[in-house]
Amino acid sequence: MTVLVTGGAGFIGANFVLDWLAQSQEVLVNLDKLTYAGNLESLASLKGNPRHVFVHGDIGDASLVTQLLAQYQPRAVINFAAESHVDRSIHGPGEFIETNIVGTFRLLESVRGFWQALPAPAQSNFRFLHVSTDEVYGSLAPQDAAFSETHTFEPNSPYSASKAASDHLVRAWHHTYGLPVLTTNCSNNYGPLHFPEKLIPLMIVNALAGKPLPVYGDGMQVRDWLYVKDHCSAIRCVLEGGRLGQTYNVGGWNEKPNIEIVRTVCTLLDELQARADGVSYAQQISYVKDRPGHDRRYAIDARKLEQELGWRPAETFETGIRKTVEWYLANPEWVAHVQSGAYRDWLSKQYTA
Ligand code: NAD
Ligand code: TYD
Fold it and tell me: Which ligand is nearest to the CA of 206?
């Protein structure tokens, strides 16, 4: 058996690929465009593993995807590929429209062509799982109930609008064509292999480099944090047991204001790798201009996933954030290569060595 993963060289995709190959005997085909966010160094431990087939390419390349589907006959496609950073979407929304909307549309069409031609048992067992975000639901006021799966879509950034559009396409391909889809909408992830443009890895990396820790606005925006390995286990759970056409919210009931996250990172670094001058890393916190249209609060109600499929996160925020800080301290080379851009040479190194 084989699965096709898209975007498996990114943060969540790479964690998913590593976990999947450690737990299953199946072949995994990993299709990734290797944008700035794609990092094959994250998958270095898979070198020589015949069950990991890396393919450099775009989900929007219909002839490539059609050929891969025909060649590998996957039982499932799991779509992580996306442009994912809100700040980048504000500066340049074009790529977000191209990959998240047009790319998802093209992928759905390639998969539909493959799926429609499958013989009966393979056709009914096939799954297309679309990995999405809680940001499609918009922003909550402090007293509002957490997002359930029936919350209206009110996306506010080019990123969240493009993901919302992709979710609608996936839904429509099920209702119109019968494609057996599943969608997950997850809260903010954190953990190993996270590109240091996002809040938690940026704070760790900047703190260690003696740089300012930029907190947007008043730092009181609330996000709901989930350790990345728990997101991966939720995706495996939905893939195996989710009801066709359904969406499942994924979250760990861990709402925290940004400033608390930053202070927690500083406290852990103070304990694990104190500054030479003995001053807390918290001294480096610097309040900066807010992000335009900054969503105030996200919170996920994950009861459907918990009650229907029995999923539970394995980590609390306290255990997960400690593991994360420890991982960054133990992997300075990965961080240095991301910062210098050397990780982008990995493709040639990996395949010529
Ligand atoms: P990421 O930016 O770290 O990785 C995205 C990956 O997709 C990269 O490897 C990139 O090279 C690849 N990619 C981009 N465009 C592509 C294309 N056209 N064809 C093939 N590959 C392409 O993102 P991430 O944080 O790992 O997020 C993965 C998915 O999970 C995204 O769909 C995102 O919307 C969703 N999500 C992320 C979070 C989060 O907190 N990071 C939370 C919920 C949902
Ligand atoms: P981010 O990691 O970009 O995820 P998202 O915008 O998808 O939630 O940001 C998480 C929160 O941290 C968000 O409220 C913006 C804030 N933030 C900062 O305060 N400073 C920063 O340098 C970054 C990157 C984010």
Answer: 2
Domain that holds residue 121: 2-350
Domain at 247, CATH number: 3.40.50.720
Distance CA 192, CA 2 (A): 26
Task: For 86-137, write each residue's pLDDT tens digit.
Answer: 999 999 999 999 999 999 999 999 999 999 999 999 999 999 999 999 999 9
What DSSP letter does each residue of 91-132 carry, written as one string?
H-THHHIIIIIIIHHHHHHHHHHHHHTS-HHHHHH-EEEEEE
Q: Which ligand is nearest to the CA of 289?
A: 2
135 is catalytic: yes
Tell me which residue has its CA closest to atom 5 in ligand 1.
Answer: 10
User: What is the domain count for the chain?
Assistant: 1
287 is catalytic: no
Residue nearest to atom 5 of ligand 2 (CA): 86
The pTM for the full model equals 0.97
